[in-house]
Amino acid sequence: MMTIPPYPGDPILMTSPTASPSLTLTGLGRRFGTFRAVHDVNWTLGPGIHGLLGPNGAGKSTLLAMLAGTLPPSEGRVENGGQDVTQSMRAHYARLGYAPQSVDLPPHATPRQLLAYMAALKGLPAREAAQQAAGLADALHIAAKLDTPVGDLSGGMRRRLVVAQSLLGQPEILLLDEPTAELDGFEKLALQSILTEMAPRCVIVFSSHIVSDLEAIAEDLLILSKGQAISIGQPETLAAALEGRVVSLTVPATAIDHALQFGTVTGRKRMADGIRLRLVLNAGKAAPPGAIPEAPSLEDAYLAAVAEHRA
Ligand SMILES: Nc1ncnc2c1ncn2[C@@H]1O[C@H](COP(=O)(O)OP(=O)(O)OP(=O)(O)O)[C@@H](O)[C@H]1O
Fold first, then answer.
1. CA distance 226 to 245
2. What is the pTM assigned to this prediction?
3. For the chain, N or C: smaller number of CB within 10 Å?
4. Which keywords has UniProt assigned to this entry (predicted)?
5. Average pLDDT, the chain
6. Neighbours of 228 (CB within 10 A)
7. In the beta sheet, which residues pair with residue 50?
């Protein structure tokens, strides 16, 4: 009978934490055939929560998969602590937590089994694995379902399980692809609290197409449109750049098309006397008669930037 030697320990998995983890993206791009899904993205990230904001199909998942090292770039590179991740995969993986957007979890396995399995892959000793899994299950409110087959869990519960596995082993780089997609307001707050606590020692990249989810916690944002980084900055700076260009205007439903000539609609509300539009005026365009100046928001900045880029 073949005997398997005892596991000797892995020097990479046993390395001590990095003093200040970092990710650097340089000229990063990915093609699928001739289609450019991501093009020339440059971004330097230190510890903290970084938002990746973009509409459906903008390239968020493609970008995150390149950061994770599971999808090789067609152009440019990703460096973890100054080392190209394609040249140092094991060291990168040892420091990484990744919650992809879509994961096919085995329906008959339980969260307890899956967390134990992922913890073992990450090289956590059994006792440490059990402690971390219990702590994460409590924090993400899945403790009551730890022994329920995954196939019987709600979508939001499965999403939290995928996030929980990414947090095992206290990663230094954490990539969360639309982690709030199926979460209710209470669960979003629980996740925000965990991430805020980790932020001083972890590079966290959090993708979403929901502005308010990122505005609540991200210290900086990259807005992606058609694979290109069209804005990078702090949420308040991106909003402030629209100072003087945001107005509201109440018009009859039949006059909406006319109002569109003045700028991008970023909000719309039915009122007793018509439709109240929120508009980001086109650069250099005067406000229409009756418009009321408004303080710009991050939502205005995001919607206007994407609309201008698409045009
Ligand atoms: N393997 C692939 N082959 C061909 N095209 C692909 C592949 N993966 C992604 N794409 C295309 O790349 C573009 C970006 O897709 P991606 O999933 O990265 O966008 P996303 O911003 O994450 O979108 P969503 O918010 O809808 O999840 C899309 O047009 C998509 O169809």
1. 25
2. 0.91
3. N
4. ATP-binding, Nodulation, Nucleotide-binding, Transport
5. 91
6. 17
7. 205, 220
